[in-house]
Each structure stands twice: as C-alpha cells, then as structure tokens.
Backbone:
C-alpha cells in the first residue's frame, strides 16, 4: 500500500490526489475493453472520477475514449474536463431524445441522481431517480453498468451491530430513499429483460475535504455550532477510494445485478468525531440530544474482500479534514444532513 500524504494544502493538490489512479485501477483498465461513459459527470464525484479513469488509461497505455455526460450548468467544469483530454457531451438526462443521441459505450458509470430538495419537489426526485434510469438502462442495455445507489435503501439498524449487509431486506425511510430503491429496481428490471450486466453501488457518505459528514462536523465544532446526536453513528469513505472502487466494479457487473455496499470499515460515532475535532481545534463541542440506538450504517466487508480495503484510513481522513478547516480551505456548501432520521431531505 502506497504511503498516504500527511496533509493536503490546496484545491489543486486535492484534485490531483482524487484523480491519481492506483495500481489496481491501472490493472483494471488494461483488462477492460471498450470506451467508458460517465453519466452525471458534473456532480461532486464525477469530475475526479472522469480524470482518474482518463489518467489510468493513459498510464496503462490503453487507447480509450472517456466521455463525461452532464448538463454542465457550470461551464468551467466542462472546460477543465476537456483540458484533461476527456470528451464531454451536454445532455439533459431527463430527456429521452437526448439520451438516444449519446454514444453507446461498453462501460457505463451512472452517477446521476437527486437527493436534496426531495421534500419540496418529490415529483422531480422520483423522475430523476427512476425515470432517468429507465431511459439510460434501455439505451445502454448491451453495456456493463455500475449504477450508483445508496445505503439509504436499508432501514435504520441497531448501532450495537456491524450494519446492514447486501443480503438484508431493504426498508427505505422517506421518499428520497424510496426513490433510490426505485432506481435499483429499474436497473434490475432492464438487466433481467435484456441480460445487462450491472452492479448496484450502495455508497455511504463519500468524503472530499470540501464536503462530507466529517467536514460538516468539523466545521460546526470550529464555528461553535451545535451538533445533533439523533443519528449518532455513520460510515464514510474517502472519495478517491470510492472512485477507485467504482471503476474496478465494472469487472464485477453481473446479471442479475450484483449488490455491493461501498464505505469504510468502521462504524463511526458522531460524538467521538466531534470530541476529536474539539481537542484538535481547542474549541468547545456543543452537542444536542442523545443517540437513539439506531442509525443508517452499512457493513462493506464484501467490498473489501473483493477489492481490498480503502487506501486512506479514517485516522488520516480526520487529520486531513482538520487541517483543511484550519487553513481555511473552501467548502462546497452542500451539507450532508447526516443527522436526518426521518428521511426528509
């Protein structure tokens, strides 16, 4: 395992680290055939994933098109991807006509989805999370598809256990989580109808230094804001590790779809993390409420047995986040709302 850097000092260094492929990424790229399209490529994870895939291809000496698809409401994201040698296509994925114009590729990474604002526009959330997958799954029915999903499809479980595993019954809480289960069922339907090889990538809380549960807690401690303990436990994974797993999961696609929990190995305490940042910053922690004894946590043992453990451990993530907050590193202002227990986002 390569040595993990002790600190990240700038957005440029952060982006470079997120996009640096591992040896396993390069090995996967050498074995894969065909081009790779990334749908929903302008979100929090898409740009760094696209750059990682492109770099892995270049370093592996593989001639391959990497195509990033999004509406690209921020033109600077499109420009930065083009400068990295990535082909870009503007597309409103809610439009079946526009989806039909997309190039057919052997490998699909599907990142598109809607979470926040679900309480205000549940209709739009359902459309984004079920109608879009229907159009995409039909258009790419002959491809391999890694479809991003979420651990929110599971019910809350007792915090005394390890967390939900892939064989557990689903039990989504709230319309956002229900629509995510709908997304999974749509991909499952098309996979069974057309023999599409698919993997449902149930991700729990990726962390980039500009967003994520650890960042939310750190900034609240630093700014003297209260932290609610209603959802007292959680999982996280470094976004770079999540990107690596997504790429390598293309080789794990199956029909019927394979399900894979993707997160770090630990069940993490909100109280414990808040206390860590309190000591680190020398600031008081303001905690509200008590832990309920239930939380949304997943067990990713299967992922780690198939693809190896995450490269960046929790201790390093905590230090990176603390340093980033201390130096005034920028934030995306996209809170995770990790404390929400009723599924209303």
Residues:
């Amino acid at each position: 395992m390569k040595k993990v850097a002790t600190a990240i000092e700038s957005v440029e260094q952060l982006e470079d680290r997120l996009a640096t492929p591992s040896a396993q990424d390069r090995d996967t790229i050498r074995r894969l055939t065909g081009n790779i399209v990334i749908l929903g490529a302008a979100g929090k994870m898409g740009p760094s994933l696209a750059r990682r895939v492109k770099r892995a291809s270049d370093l592996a000496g593989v001639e391959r098109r990497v195509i990033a698809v999004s509406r690209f409401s921020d033109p600077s994201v499109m420009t930065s991807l083009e400068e990295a040698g990535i082909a870009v296509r503007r597309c409103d994925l809610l439009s079946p006509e526009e989806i039909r114009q997309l190039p057919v590729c052997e490998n699909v990474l599907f990142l598109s989805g809607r979470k926040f604002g679900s309480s205000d526009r549940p209709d739009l959330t359902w459309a984004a999370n079920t109608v879009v997958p229907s159009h995409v799954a039909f258009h790419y029915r002959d491809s391999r598809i890694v479809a991003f999903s979420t651990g929110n499809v599971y019910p809350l479980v007792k915090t005394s256990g390890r967390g939900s595993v892939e064989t557990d019954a689903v039990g989504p809480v709230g319309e956002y989580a229900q629509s995510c289960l709908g997304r999974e069922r749509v991909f499952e339907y098309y996979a069974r109808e057309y023999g599409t090889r698919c993997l449902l990538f149930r991700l729990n809380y990726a962390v980039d230094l500009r967003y994520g549960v650890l960042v939310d807690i750190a900034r609240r401690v630093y700014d003297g804001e209260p932290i609610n303990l209603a959802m007292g436990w959680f999982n996280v994974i470094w976004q770079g590790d999540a990107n690596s797993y997504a790429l390598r999961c293309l080789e794990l696609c199956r029909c019927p779809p394979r399900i894979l929990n993707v997160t770090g190995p630990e069940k993490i305490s909100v109280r414990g993390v808040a206390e860590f940042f309190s000591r680190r910053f020398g600031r008081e922690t303001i905690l509200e409420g008590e832990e309920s004894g239930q939380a949304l946590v997943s067990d990713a043992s299967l992922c780690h047995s198939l693809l190896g453990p995450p490269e960046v451990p929790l201790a390093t993530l905590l230090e990176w986040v603390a340093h980033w907050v201390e130096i005034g590193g920028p934030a995306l202002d996209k809170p995770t709302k990790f404390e929400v227990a009723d599924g209303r986002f």
